[in-house]
Amino acid sequence: MPAIVLVGAQWGDEGKGKATDLMGRDVDYVVKFNGGNNAGHTVVIDGEKYALHLLPSGILSPNCTPVIGNGVVIDLEVLFAELDGLIARGVDVSKLRVSSNAHVIAPYNRTLDKVTERFLGKRKIGTTGRGIGPTYADKMNRVGIRVQDIFDQSILRQKVEAALGLKNQVLAKVYNTRAVEADRVVEELLSYAERLAPMVADTSLELEQALDAGKNVLLEAGQATLLDIDHGTYPFVTSSSATAGGACTGSGIPPTRVTRVIAILKAYSTRVGEGPFPTELFDDDGEFLRKTGQEYGTTTGRPRRCGWVDTVVGRYATRINGVTDFVITKLDVLTGLKKVPVCVAYDIDGVRHEQMPPSQSDFHHATPVYEELDGWWEDISDCRTFEELPANAQAYVLRVEELIGARVSAIGVGPGREQIIERHALLD
């Protein structure tokens, strides 16, 4: 069986959790392949809201095996707090698998993340301060701590002491911050070993065997296309590969196994943190989108920056990820607007650009070119077929579909698990 990749098409918070949950009922494995607890998914089931940060959304589907892949960085304290929260609500979490090659967020990386952002001042990136970036930096510098190291006290101590040899110098001499004690770090990490051990596996091998056995595997991205370390709005990006290409390196599944890429596109645009955002609104329309869409970060609670949908970004996501299907979420939020603008191109110094400019400076100075579509007033939250949508809502979806260059296979019309319209099957 092929593997399916699910990615965000904008700056994150598009509703990947809802889409994963929708397919999670019919897939055997859901794999988170990048990121950490710096992003969240919200899933609503029977009126109950579940906020997931580190765990794959598939953990809420009883027949699904959730996997944290090798491309993820794991805060063990957050992992077990999140698991305990789900257990208290009656969710079975016993199937969770964790890659032995995934890297662990050490306490000193959280410290470095916070003091670095403070030090940067106006030049800050807008990180969540959870140690994600410094942990990925350790990974690339080959001084990181992996899950498997937790089970070898000698190796763990060597790695912690080696890492702190330099980091404590930086903390003390650059940031004027107290040094971190190696003993405390080792003690904290070792305290999780017993509970962690039953979850740890060679997940790459397990996934390959599952595919050979004819099982469905869904690879779920954290963050989104424009936050990808290579293809996003650098430097205002995350520290991992959040595009479809990252699904292979972050899970250990070869690219020849992937035959379908599903991208999630919110019916408008949002962004958290710093960085350019051409369609951002600073008026009553922006506040309408924020309040109606409840646009506050699942992980941080920060108000999200809001703007109209950007189909230049959508086309870029289609190209970079090889998108075969889109899911448009939160279409219901646009209900009640007389006109709904759609960004179809950028004006940069008087020149029209219909594709993403390769220069960050040009993107920063891009002015959106809008096409206005008629809005609708009808409540669409109970619509379950495309034909039940008001004519203007249908026209909006069809125009966005035309502009982004890939078919829209599903449409979210509310927060609930059941509030979705499937135009084309997401799983064949």
TrEMBL record:
<dbReference type="GO" id="GO:0004019">
    <property type="term" value="F:adenylosuccinate synthase activity"/>
</dbReference>
<feature type="binding site">
    <location>
        <position position="304"/>
    </location>
    <ligand>
        <name>GTP</name>
    </ligand>
</feature>
<dbReference type="InterPro" id="IPR033128">
    <property type="entry name" value="Adenylosuccin_syn_Lys_AS"/>
</dbReference>
<feature type="binding site" description="in other chain">
    <location>
        <position position="238"/>
    </location>
    <ligand>
        <name>IMP</name>
    </ligand>
</feature>
<dbReference type="GO" id="GO:0046040">
    <property type="term" value="P:IMP metabolic process"/>
</dbReference>
<feature type="binding site">
    <location>
        <position position="40"/>
    </location>
    <ligand>
        <name>Mg(2+)</name>
    </ligand>
</feature>
<comment type="similarity">
    <text>Belongs to the adenylosuccinate synthetase family.</text>
</comment>
<feature type="active site" description="Proton acceptor">
    <location>
        <position position="13"/>
    </location>
</feature>
<protein>
    <recommendedName>
        <fullName>Adenylosuccinate synthetase</fullName>
        <ecNumber>6.3.4.4</ecNumber>
    </recommendedName>
</protein>
<dbReference type="GO" id="GO:0044208">
    <property type="term" value="P:'de novo' AMP biosynthetic process"/>
</dbReference>
<feature type="active site" description="Proton donor">
    <location>
        <position position="41"/>
    </location>
</feature>
<keyword id="KW-0436">Ligase</keyword>
<feature type="binding site">
    <location>
        <begin position="330"/>
        <end position="332"/>
    </location>
    <ligand>
        <name>GTP</name>
    </ligand>
</feature>
<comment type="pathway">
    <text>Purine metabolism; AMP biosynthesis via de novo pathway; AMP from IMP: step 1/2.</text>
</comment>
<dbReference type="InterPro" id="IPR027417">
    <property type="entry name" value="P-loop_NTPase"/>
</dbReference>
<feature type="active site">
    <location>
        <position position="139"/>
    </location>
</feature>
<feature type="binding site" description="in other chain">
    <location>
        <position position="128"/>
    </location>
    <ligand>
        <name>IMP</name>
    </ligand>
</feature>
<feature type="binding site">
    <location>
        <begin position="412"/>
        <end position="414"/>
    </location>
    <ligand>
        <name>GTP</name>
    </ligand>
</feature>
<keyword id="KW-0547">Nucleotide-binding</keyword>
<dbReference type="InterPro" id="IPR001114">
    <property type="entry name" value="Adenylosuccinate_synthetase"/>
</dbReference>
<feature type="binding site" description="in other chain">
    <location>
        <position position="302"/>
    </location>
    <ligand>
        <name>IMP</name>
    </ligand>
</feature>
<dbReference type="Pfam" id="PF00709">
    <property type="entry name" value="Adenylsucc_synt"/>
</dbReference>
<feature type="binding site" description="in other chain">
    <location>
        <begin position="38"/>
        <end position="41"/>
    </location>
    <ligand>
        <name>IMP</name>
    </ligand>
</feature>
<dbReference type="GO" id="GO:0005525">
    <property type="term" value="F:GTP binding"/>
</dbReference>
<dbReference type="InterPro" id="IPR042110">
    <property type="entry name" value="Adenylosuccinate_synth_dom2"/>
</dbReference>
<keyword id="KW-0658">Purine biosynthesis</keyword>
<dbReference type="InterPro" id="IPR018220">
    <property type="entry name" value="Adenylosuccin_syn_GTP-bd"/>
</dbReference>
<feature type="binding site">
    <location>
        <position position="142"/>
    </location>
    <ligand>
        <name>IMP</name>
    </ligand>
</feature>
<dbReference type="GO" id="GO:0005737">
    <property type="term" value="C:cytoplasm"/>
</dbReference>
<dbReference type="InterPro" id="IPR042111">
    <property type="entry name" value="Adenylosuccinate_synth_dom3"/>
</dbReference>
<keyword id="KW-0342">GTP-binding</keyword>
<keyword id="KW-0460">Magnesium</keyword>
<comment type="function">
    <text>Plays an important role in the de novo pathway of purine nucleotide biosynthesis. Catalyzes the first committed step in the biosynthesis of AMP from IMP.</text>
</comment>
<feature type="binding site">
    <location>
        <begin position="40"/>
        <end position="42"/>
    </location>
    <ligand>
        <name>GTP</name>
    </ligand>
</feature>
<keyword id="KW-0963">Cytoplasm</keyword>
<keyword id="KW-0479">Metal-binding</keyword>
<feature type="binding site">
    <location>
        <begin position="12"/>
        <end position="18"/>
    </location>
    <ligand>
        <name>GTP</name>
    </ligand>
</feature>
<comment type="subunit">
    <text>Homodimer.</text>
</comment>
<dbReference type="InterPro" id="IPR042109">
    <property type="entry name" value="Adenylosuccinate_synth_dom1"/>
</dbReference>
<feature type="binding site" description="in other chain">
    <location>
        <begin position="13"/>
        <end position="16"/>
    </location>
    <ligand>
        <name>IMP</name>
    </ligand>
</feature>
<dbReference type="GO" id="GO:0000287">
    <property type="term" value="F:magnesium ion binding"/>
</dbReference>
<feature type="binding site">
    <location>
        <begin position="298"/>
        <end position="304"/>
    </location>
    <ligand>
        <name>substrate</name>
    </ligand>
</feature>
